[in-house]
């Protein structure tokens, strides 16, 4: 795991699986977009920003929030 990842305190409704909501802030334009925790954990996958179409590894993201 890299140090740009932040874990929010759990406020997941009962019955819903934790760790399904992950937000990434684009390293280029700081646009926030949704991805899955499993993609982040793989680490080698390129994330694709829907706003500026930059592609980058999770460790290069401006910020990652796992909720
Ligand atoms: Zn972007």
Care to describe what's here?
This protein has 67 residues and is mainly β. The chain has one domain (19-66). Helices cover 9% and strands 28% of the residues. It contains one helix and six strands. The strands form two sheets. Strands 1-6-2-3 form a four-stranded mixed β-sheet. The chain is globular and about 35 Å long. The model has no long low-confidence stretch (mean pLDDT 86). The site of zinc ion has 8 residues, from loops. Zinc ion (ZN) is lined by residues 26, 28-29, 31, 49, 51-52, 54.
What's the quick description here?
With 67 residues, the protein is mainly beta. 9% of the residues lie in helices and 28% in strands.
Biggest sheet strand order reads 1-6-2-3
Gross morphology is globular
Small-molecule binders here are: zinc ion
Please outline the major beta sheet. Answer: 4 strands, mixed
H/E element sequence = EEEHEEE
Please count the helical segments.
1
Q: Give the tally of structural domains.
A: 1
Flag low-confidence runs: none
| Beta-strand fraction estimate | 25-35%
Helix proportion of residues, in percent?
Answer: under 10%
Count all strands and give the number: 6
What is the CA-atom radius of gyration, in angstroms?
12 Å
Structural class: mainly beta
Overall mean confidence score, pLDDT = 86
Task: Note the gap between the termini.
Answer: 15 Å
């Amino acid at each position: 795991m890299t140090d740009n990842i932040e874990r929010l305190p759990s406020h997941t409704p009962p019955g819903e699986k934790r760790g399904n909501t992950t937000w990434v802030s684009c390293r280029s334009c700081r646009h926030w977009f949704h991805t899955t925790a499993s993609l982040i954990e793989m680490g080698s996958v390129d994330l694709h920003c829907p706003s500026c179409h930059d592609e980058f590894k999770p460790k290069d993201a401006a910020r990652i929030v796992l909720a």
